[in-house]
Design goal:
Radius of gyration: 20 Å
Strand content: 5-15%
CATH topology of the largest domain: 2-enoyl-CoA Hydratase, Chain A, domain 1
Shape: globular
CATH architecture of the largest domain: Alpha-Beta Complex
Length: 284
């Protein structure tokens, strides 16, 4: 697939996905949604990809949905059928990122508004430029938070902070995003990507890819679990499977021998089933 609205660049096991509509402040479109899903599909299938950075081209990360259709931008009646409501395209993207087998870092290099910020919520770590501006502006546009953000945002920042940002719909600065727990750290514009790459490199150089993929599943899926026993069951299955792996033997041996580890197990060869019976809910 030839990408039109994103760039896909792999360098040293770190994939950088760049939203690439700078003339429109990287505003989100149906094409961008399809391309992001394809990019994450491609990354999961490629063992050369060990970590993913998502950023924006130019001065914005993503200015939200492209409003080129004017007042009818969010009127989806033409897309509906008698049997099925149209799906929120932002939600299809965030669900795909949620399912990623590779860790994902958001490098928010500028304005991130609407879907421009909600798409980052299922990413594992968010860094921002110190002059970035962020807004969950949906109520000011007469719509509601989308892209599964009613599930993600309260889990990332807590219900009170989530409701303040959503109910006011205001655009706020990077310092408020940091104080509210939305982003991990702030950086001068010229240092943001380098910091994200250094963080990605720490993952690539020191960890076992299969273990990272399983840890990511454990962390995200357990956010919706009803009891810690579910985590104990999944942890136990994962420890049983990984304890007999070449990676586990290498991890211990390299530590005892005081050398860098060389992990050989690959995500593409399949992950152990640590959630038997787990199935993603369908859309209805």
């Amino acid at each position: 697939m030839e990408f039109q609205e994103i760039r896909y660049e792999l360098d040293g096991h770190v994939l950088t996905i760049t939203l690439n509509r700078p003339q429109r402040l990287n505003a989100f479109t149906a094409t961008m949604a399809r391309e992001l899903i394809e990019a994450f599909d491609r990354a999961d299938a490629d063992d050369e990809v060990r970590a993913i950075i998502v950023t924006g081209e130019g001065r914005a990360f993503c200015a939200g949905a492209d409003l080129g259709a004017g007042a009818d931008t969010f009127d989806w009646r033409e897309l509906a059928s008698e049997d099925e409501l149209p799906r929120d395209s932002g939600g299809t993207v965030t669900l795909r990122i949620f399912a990623s087998k590779k860790p994902v870092i958001a490098a928010i290099n500028g304005p991130a508004v609407g879907i421009g910020v909600t798409m980052t919520l299922p990413m594992d770590i968010r860094l921002a430029a110190d002059d970035a501006r962020i807004g969950f502006v949906f109520t000011r546009r007469g719509i509601v938070p989308e892209a599964c953000s009613s599930w993600f945002l309260p889990r990332v920042v807590g219900i009170s902070q989530a409701m303040e940002w959503v109910a006011t719909g205001r655009v706020f600065d990077a310092q408020e995003a940091l104080a509210g727990g939305l982003v991990r750290s702030l950086h001068p514009q010229g240092e943001l990507l380098a910091t994200a790459r250094a963080l990605a490199a720490e993952i690539v150089e020191n960890t076992a890819p299969v273990s990272v993929a399983l840890a990511r599943q454990l962390m995200w899926r357990m956010l919706g679990s009803e009891h810690p026993m579910r985590a104990h069951q999944a942890d136990s299955r994962a420890m049983f499977a990984r304890g007999q792996s070449d990676d586990a033997r290498e991890g211990v041996s390299s530590f005892l021998q005081k050398r860098s580890a060389h992990f050989t197990d690959r995500v593409s060869e399949g992950l152990p089933d640590i959630f038997p019976g787990y199935a993603e809910p369908g859309f209805a």
